[in-house]
Amino acid sequence: MGKEKKEHFEILLKACLHVMYRVALRLTRNNEDAQDLVSDATVLAWKNFSKLHDTRKFKPWILKIVTNTYISQYRRKKMNPDPIILGNKSNEDEEFSLFDVLSAPFLLWNNNPEKIFLDSLLRQDISRAIDELPDEYRLVITLCELESLPYQEVAKTLNLPIGTVRSRLHRGKSRLQKKLWYYAKAKGFLKPSFARAAEGKGV
């Protein structure tokens, strides 16, 4: 029975390893730390596998272990950990929407100005912008947007109400869009029409 249980665990784990590593890498922002995080989370998952009564929920369960392990262990090792914002919004949380910036009247002929704007950025720019987000936003964006987990699963994984998940996702996207805008502006990726549209909106 013990052998069958271990084999079952290994099958479930193998199916989730790539997701675990992607999430771990996004959290730690370091390949070596990500591998260590996955390893530590795997050990904890095996120790607690008998407590998982519905193995169909293995993926959100083990991602919860990954995120909890990161929060409890790896964030403490940072000299300057990202602040966890619990109440008031900071200046960076002010509303910012690429659509609002790019949808000037003379740009409305374009079907999707946001897509054209994002396509002009390099993948590493987008990745760096996500990495620079505080933990509370990076976690939610990673799970909701990059891993496409349902809000309910993300809420369970992070022990948060669904409303908080939605709120953090909204604020995180706003911050991310603002960072991407400034990256593009600094690197000269913006088309003249985009730049004029932004100037007209005070960006």
UniProtKB/TrEMBL annotation:
Q: What Gene3D superfamilies is this protein classified in?
A: 1.10.1740.10, Winged helix-like DNA-binding domain superfamily/Winged helix DNA-binding domain (1.10.10.10)
Q: Which CDD domains match?
A: Sigma70_r4
Query: Which SUPFAM superfamilies does the record associate with it?
Result: Sigma2 domain of RNA polymerase sigma factors (SSF88946), Sigma3 and sigma4 domains of RNA polymerase sigma factors (SSF88659)
Where does the RNA polymerase sigma-70 region domain start and stop, copy by copy?
Answer: 14-78
Record keyword Transcription regulation present: yes
Which GO terms of type biological process are on file? DNA-templated transcription initiation
Q: Which InterPro entries match?
A: RNA_pol_sigma-70-like, RNA_pol_sigma-70_dom, RNA_pol_sigma70_r2, RNA_pol_sigma70_r4_t2, RNA_pol_sigma_r2, RNA_pol_sigma_r3/r4-like, WH-like_DNA-bd_sf
Could you say which protein family the record assigns here?
A: Belongs to the sigma-70 factor family. ECF subfamily.
- Could you tell me what this protein is called? RNA polymerase, sigma-24 subunit, ECF subfamily
